[in-house]
Specification:
single chain, 413 residues, mainly alpha, globular
């Protein structure tokens, strides 16, 4: 039987895995408190902070707190959690103990994290290559992806970036899932060009890479003719009906960017909007159609076509229906982009409609923190007093220009 301290450590770690975020600061504690509240349970940020050693002094947790954390993980209470975990321990004394988000394929998330911390990249590569994973296991998939991405963006080792590009699982978890849109110091776009593209032959993966390079550089103000040529050459090989929705949304966005570069967008904007609506309506799930809408809308706003969007009744009905009927099970920056557009639409129409913008969990934006901030700043601008609008706008312009999200500035006066 495991000690109470070991069980508590397990519980706290499993809570972190369930929210896909390490609780290492008071803001993390506040976030966890808010997540727990969504299940109509309550633990204060200060109590959470003491549990995780953030707030001093730490102290032995009350049983009621343990009950709530256990219920957050879908156990009946702390007693139920302890009993089940102890039974697992007895049944698997000779085996590695797995966290709840890990399956029985000999994969240990903690082992991967330890290898990363020690810069043992050969072991990282071996762990990923040995992993047998199905795409149905979303929780584990995104946990691994975010763990790799969070580490690499702070420590962009070319040795590790090269190893991941040569591994099918490495490409899937880091290059194709994490997708660092912030791209600090251009480390991610550089790795795409130096390593990823040299290890892929699939046309759809190539269009992902070339559309990422074009759009990321475009919004940051330094896309060039080579980016456009590479995109156009590969875009001609793509079949919409056999492509992933992310690839399609990037393709639609970059087609708009190319027309904007070539001064054709004034003549083609209506066709682009109609195509986006048609494809978005073909998807069953809101998390897919939200991306099909969001990326092209972002590009059209950047080129100054916000008014055309506002006047397009069918597009606005599509966006409104998506928000009205969506479950938003998968949180993403696409939802934020569409929410910003809806707030802009209400503000532009002088509507008396009351709306309370939602704020999504930070864990959804580990790869896109700066765009999240830019969007939240603009939404706060729309709801601010005139005095505060001036203050927000002055700071916002500098932030957006510095980080490459000036498209949001086209929505404010």
């Amino acid at each position: 039987m495991e000690s109470q301290n070991i069980l508590l450590d397990k519980l706290l770690r499993q809570v972190e895995i369930s929210i896909q975020r390490n609780v290492v600061s008071f803001s993390d504690a506040k976030f966890l408190s808010e997540e727990i509240a969504k299940k109509k349970l309550f633990v204060s940020p200060h109590t959470i902070g003491r549990l995780y050693g953030i707030v001093k002094p730490s102290r032995k947790p009350y049983k009621e707190t343990l009950n709530i954390l256990s219920q957050f993980l879908n156990y009946l209470n702390w007693e139920d959690y302890s009993k089940i975990e102890n039974n697992k321990s007895l049944a698997k004394q000779a085996e590695i103990k797995y966290l709840r988000s890990e399956d029985e394929n000999a994969f240990s998330l903690s082992f991967l994290e330890l290898a990363l911390i020690n810069s043992d990249f050969d072991t990282v590569n071996k762990i990923l290559n040995d992993l047998k994973f199905t795409t149905d296991e979303y929780s584990v998939f995104y946990t691994i992806s975010n763990l790799l991405g969070s580490y690499i963006r702070k420590n962009p080792s070319h040795v590790l970036l090269r190893l991941l590009a040569k591994s099918q699982n490495g490409r899937a978890f880091f290059y194709e899932c994490f997708v660092d849109e912030d791209n600090p110091n251009s480390y991610y776009s550089s790795a795409i060009e130096k390593y990823y593209l040299k290890n892929i032959a699939d046309n759809n993966k190539k269009i992902f890479a070339y559309s990422y390079l074009l759009s990321n550089r475009f919004y940051k103000g330094f896309a060039n003719n080579i980016d456009i040529v590479n995109f156009k050459k590969n875009a001609s090989k793509i079949k919409i009906d056999t492509s992933h929705f992310h690839e399609i949304s990037r393709l639609l966005e970059c087609n708009i960017i190319v027309d904007g570069f070539e001064n054709k967008l004034q003549d083609t904007i209506s066709n682009h909007i109609d195509k986006v609506i048609s494809i978005a309506n073909d998807y069953t799930y809101d998390f897919q159609s939200s991306w099909i809408l969001a990326r092209p809308i972002r590009a059209m706003i950047h080129f100054g076509f916000a008014k055309e969007l506002l006047n397009h009744e069918k597009l606005n009905n599509t966006v409104d229906n998506l928000f009205k009927n969506a479950s938003f099970e998968f949180e993403s920056i696409a939802i934020y982009i569409l929410q910003l557009y809806c707030v802009f639409k209400i503000n532009s129409n002088g509507s008396n409609e009351k709306t309370k913008p939602m704020r999504l969990a930070f864990k959804s934006f580990l790869n896109n923190e700066n765009e999240r901030l830019a969007i939240e700043f603009v939404i706060s601008y729309f709801y601010a007093t005139e005095k505060n609008k001036i203050l927000i706008k002055n700071k916002l312009v500098d932030f957006c220009d510095r980080n490459g999200y000036s498209w949001v500035l086209k929505l404010i006066k």
